[in-house]
Specification:
alpha/beta, Rossmann fold, globular, Thiamine pyrophosphate-binding protein
């Protein structure tokens, strides 16, 4: 059968398992869009409003499902707009395929209209960047791209598709399915050595994270930790990798790191790190573990050999997938019961914050959400001071999920929430967004309405870029500039997009408003007044933020 290169791309994506694609149309890949006309219900194109939003959605899809999120954008400005989502997927270790139009092969190298050398531009930002110059190589390269995105340390792959290649005819058959690649398991001798090292410790600690966990793998690690009575920490913004209600869960190693978490990492004598890449936030700027050889005994388990020893040299490195490793573990015992109990007590204490002196007290809001949200709720957030609330004051049970960017990208939360509703229409999805964060991608409310994937959005509105203002007040007192915003009426804006929307101006009004949001069939936006206007001159924004963190900052 003869088909266009664009049709072959679509047929191969479906064979690999893609069911949704997020993107913005472009003339450089019209042949792909034409092929998508015939795949509705099998491979659907979710029309977005900005390439950055589309890329965030694809990145979040990969993080949530474990399968590559598909992003389709046009050449030049289209893919450079999408770069923020590519960077986020890389830092999150989330599988993703970015298919981008390219100028015709006869024009490459001339700086033609919107031409970009994709391998050169994205070579350091993506896991792989490649161009397909011949239609008969589409199945080969797409299969490799899919495999690259999901194996080892997962990440984004950028694939350039020249326009003339997509319109050319080919009789090359499409793929028949993805390759089944077994997750690498630990060698028995390495596993035995790890268990012996654990049994010889006095203050062992487990650190876990990453996107490739299955429900069975997470449950296996939890069973091991509970049977062995070893405390478990989540890496930055991977709280949903372990049941927060388990007696072994001790908190998140991330921004605003609680004192007890910092102490656990610094004072443990053995750290079992499973599926983590040792980012800056998880290590408190690489201060909690000495570079390159930590004082703590380090066992580092990762599916990618490139991650083991990249920053910290472990006493034992094990190249294995997290699920296979967790399933192979056998309980150990040791004299650390008091250590584990103290770790759990520190986490429980950190969840108790003092009341906030703003019109809407977020402590009360989080108390209500913890008590009322379904056990399989999905929470999302972008970047800003507001993220402390879903990241530090919500307990993620075994079915709950968190989609939050390790890259610290503003604007991620709303597109991620839309992707979550596309993937799981019946689940409750709540997006936390600061007012500045929300305005980065608020046009994607139209995407949500058109796709029938409307989440609940909580806009924490204080009229300022809060994180930067806090740093200004600390470093340049009484000289703040460039951080005050004049915001639109978020309620009117959301209603214009067909959402139920309300302004919540007092703490006592939140529960009823959230109840109405939960009942809305068209999504909801609640504009929460957390402005610092009610503060006395001595209660600056910085002090307000530090009050929220005072309990778990010690």
């Amino acid at each position: 059968m003869t088909r266009t290169g664009g049709a072959l791309v679509v047929d191969c994506l479906m064979a690999l398992g893609a069911t949704k694609a997020f993107g913005i149309p472009g003339e450089s890949y019209l042949a792909v869009l034409d092929a998508l006309h015939d795949t509705q219900g099998r491979l659907d194109f979710v029309l977005c409003r900005h390439e950055g939003g589309a890329a965030f959605m694809a990145s979040a899809w990969g993080k949530l499902t474990g399968k590559p999120g598909i992003c389709l954008v046009t050449r030049g400005p289209g893919v450079t707009n999408a770069a923020i989502g590519i960077h986020t997927a890389m830092q999150d270790s989330a599988p993703m395929l970015v298919l981008v139009g390219q100028v015709g092969t006869d024009m490459i190298g001339r700086e033609a209209f919107q031409e970009i050398d994709y391998p050169a531009v994205f070579g350091s930002m993506a896991k792989w960047a490649v161009q397909i110059d011949r239609a008969d190589r589409i199945p080969e390269i797409l299969a490799r791209a899919w495999k690259t995105a999901v194996t080892g340390r997962p990440g984004p792959v950028v694939i350039a598709l020249p326009e003339d290649m997509l319109t050319s005819q080919t009789d090359t058959p499409p793929l028949t399915g993805p390759a089944e690649i077994a997750e690498p398991a630990p060698l028995p001798a390495a596993l035995d050595k790890a268990l012996t090292m654990l049994a010889g410790a006095r203050r062992p600690l487990i650190l876990t994270g990453g996107c490739t966990w299955t429900a069975q793998g997470k449950a296996a690690l939890q069973r091991f930790a509970e049977a062995s009575d070893i405390p478990v920490l989540a890496a930055f913004r991977f709280q949903d990798c372990v049941d927060n209600t388990s007696p072994v869960y001790a908190g998140e190693a991330g921004v605003g790191m609680p004192t007890h978490v910092r102490r656990l990492i610094a004072e443990c004598d053995l750290l079992l790190a499973v599926n983590v890449r040792f980012g800056e936030m998880t290590t408190d700027a690489y201060t909690l573990l000495r570079v390159p050889q930590p004082e703590q005994v380090l066992i580092h388990v990762h599916a990618s050999d490139a991650e083991i020893g990249k920053i910290y040299q472990p006493q034992l490195g094990i190249q294995a997938g997290p699920n296979a490793f967790a399933d192979a573990l056998r309980p150990v015992t040791g004299p650390w019961a008091d250590w584990r109990r103290a770790a759990r007590a520190g986490f429980l204490a950190s969840m108790q914050a003092p009341a906030q002196p703003s019109p809407v007290d977020m402590v009360a809001v989080m108390d209500h959400l913890r008590a009322t949200l379904p056990e399989d709720a999905i929470l999302t957030n972008g970047a800003g001071n507001f993220a402390v609330w879903p990241n530090k004051f919500f307990a993620f049970g075994p079915k709950a999920r968190l989609l939050a960017p390790q890259s610290g990208a503003m604007g991620y939360g709303l597109p991620a929430a839309i992707a979550a509703k596309v993937a799981h229409p019946r689940r409750t999805v709540v997006c936390f967004a600061g007012d500045g964060d929300f305005q980065m991608t608020c046009a994607e409310l139209a995407t949500a309405a058109q796709a029938g994937a409307q989440p609940i959005v909580l806009v924490l509105n204080n009229g300022i870029y809060g994180t930067i203002r806090a740093h200004q007040e600390r470093n340049y007192p009484a000289r703040v500039s460039g951080t005050t915003m004049q915001n639109p009426d978020f309620v009117m804006l959301a209603r214009a997009y067909g959402f139920h929307a309300e302004r919540v101006g007092a703490t006592g009004d939140f529960a009823a408003a959230f109840g109405r949001a939960m009942q809305s069939r068209t999504g909801a936006l609640l504009d929460l007044d957390i402005s610092p206007e009610a503060l006395t001159p001595r209660q600056t924004l910085t002090q307000m933020r530090e009050a929220a963190l005072s309990r778990h900052e010690g």
